[in-house]
Amino acid sequence: MLKKIIVTLFTRGFVALVNLAILLVSSKQLGGDIRGQISLLILNIAIIQVINEIYTGYVLVYFIPKYNLRKIYTTGLAWSVICIGITTLLLIGLNLYFDVEISKYWTHIAILSFIIIIHSFNGVVILAKEKIRAYNFLNFFQPSLLLLALLVQIFVFDLRSIDSYLAALYISFSISLVISIIQVSGIFKNIGQSLPPSQTGEIFKKGFFNQLANLSHMLSNRYNFYLLSNNVLVGIYSTSTSLIESVLIISNSAATIILTYIANQKEEAQNVRITFLLSKICFLLSLVCVLVLLVIPAEFFTFLLGKDFSETKQVMLCLSPGILCISFSTVVSHYFSGLGKQRLIAVANFSGLFTTMITGYFLVSRFDIYGACYATCLSYFVASLILISMFMREHKLSLGSLFKIRSDLKFLRTVS
Fold this sequence. Notes:
Elements: H1 2-56, H2 60-63, H3 69-97, H4 106-128, H5 132-156, H6 162-189, H7 200-227, H8 231-245, H9 249-264, H10 268-295, H11 298-305, H12 312-338, H13 342-367, H14 369-394, H15 406-413
């Protein structure tokens, strides 16, 4: 297990560097206003994807080893087409209500959503079959291709608009989709027909709570995009959020492995011990990253991102307490997901979103962009506290166990 986590961590680390380069190029070369438009466009695609993944998301990691994959996959394709159409129409109404000016991009949003969703669906199938190498490759390849396409358009063809970013999205996800389809086709050739038909109702039930949790988590921060007054502020806030969230590659790397491990193992005591240890390690490593941020001059971010982003460091620091909470609770969340307990995660994350919704308007109107940070941190703290409390209470873990690491590290090395 330790080897898989390290490999996944390095892969996600490279991906984070690529995403950082994308962020730097798009921010400095396109400016705060266009960066804000891109953030709103990506947010709408992400909402469509999260809702679609009620059926096609990571909850399938729990079902694919146990049920007929062909049935699961064909149902997922049909669901995707229907869901994208309905969700896009609903989001058009939502954006009109908040007076968000991205109306001319809805056709692109719908088409890109379909490409991205099927690519992600294929990735879930690949992960569920524990093909970690192929899964990591796809996660690295797509953003790398996006960066390359963006660089060519900006520095070769001198194209600096939101259309440049759209074209890069089309190129990177379309080619990655073809590769993922080839991978999934190989999986279909090697599966037997002995597994029982998929329990579609059960998948939707667990998927609903899983995606309610994911949507709540995403909107706990991104809901503030709608409350900020203009695209430039959205650009600054979204860029700062993306930068500080790069710290979460540590916990996300461990969480991905935990998800597949828990779904395929039955030793509860061992699962609990590994989960709690990895949560503590992820928190400590994330804390180190935040401490490094403290010594980086604010002018460094202005130099990298452009004059519109002079407040980036301060915004990142304001968000960092919430990010540290999430760095601990992410592994615990995936532990519950691996056991099919999506309802517990949904309760915690929805409580976090509710915290944002009842505090966001007041805090943003009073403290502007920093109010958005305060609302997000409160949200993350509430969600993390609920998850960790449920985990510790269920397994009768004491507060003292939070500080027990050395002996657990020796144990982790023995786990395959």
